[in-house]
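=== RUN LOG ===
request id: a7f3
mode: sequence -> structure
chains: 1
length: 275
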Amino acid sequence: MFKSNEDFTLSTYSILPILKIFYRYWSPTIYIVLIQFSIFNFHSCGIDVEDPTQPTPPVWVQKSLPDEWPERGIDAHEFGIYLEWAPNSGENISAYLIFRAEYFDQNDSLSDYELLTRLESESSALLEYIDTDIQLRTYFNYKLKTEDMTGNLSDYSDSRSYSLLPTVQLSTMVPNGPIDKLDGARQLRWNYGYDIEMETYCLTITTDGNELVWREGFNPGNYTSAVESWTIPVSVSLEPDEVYKWRIDTGAQYIDDFETAGSESPWATFLFVGE
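=== RESULT ===
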């Protein structure tokens, strides 16, 4: 006797030779009935009928340009590296598998891809994951696979690569706090504090309700530990006695206008007191 379904893995394909014998000596009608009966009994006994159809690989969401909002695709996150891809519509997908390889710089050889995590399929329009198990200044390559309800795996998706840089610390960001005032000088200050080749900053300001007010990229005045500052243009409309949020992103290693390394600071706040 078979102890479990794992011990008995017959499929429709494995009994076809037997059924063909019946077809030779019996009528085609009985042959068709036997096929339908066998499929029904395999399912009712908990034995899966094989589905040889391979699902299609997932598709990454296109990475947004540095000054676009909201941000999309692979990107720095306050707690790691953010990944985003589109669901496989019209397919019975049960899970998405994320694989990861790494290298220290672009001259190193890539390590083998290993399974990072398996995510159960969701019905949302977009799927996302934050990889928090990372090391700074290390490039991580990611690929995806889909798994359908019968256990079939897709081929790999194409790859996406990103490296996380050190983050601007909240303690160095001025002003910071719902009662910390920003006056008519409109100057924001921070200290990056890391001696690495960081190429650009991107400053984002939103309302307290996360509506975008202003976002712009610019080159840093210093690449080391000197205090940086930026004056919000007077053309940017800020309402007196309103609380706003602001954040500093860094970027480096640009390929076709898209950064492949960067960081994202925590959100700081300020109370605008008017001109």
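=== NOTES ===
The longest helix spans residues 28-44.
The first strand starts at residue 59 and ends at 60.
=== END ===
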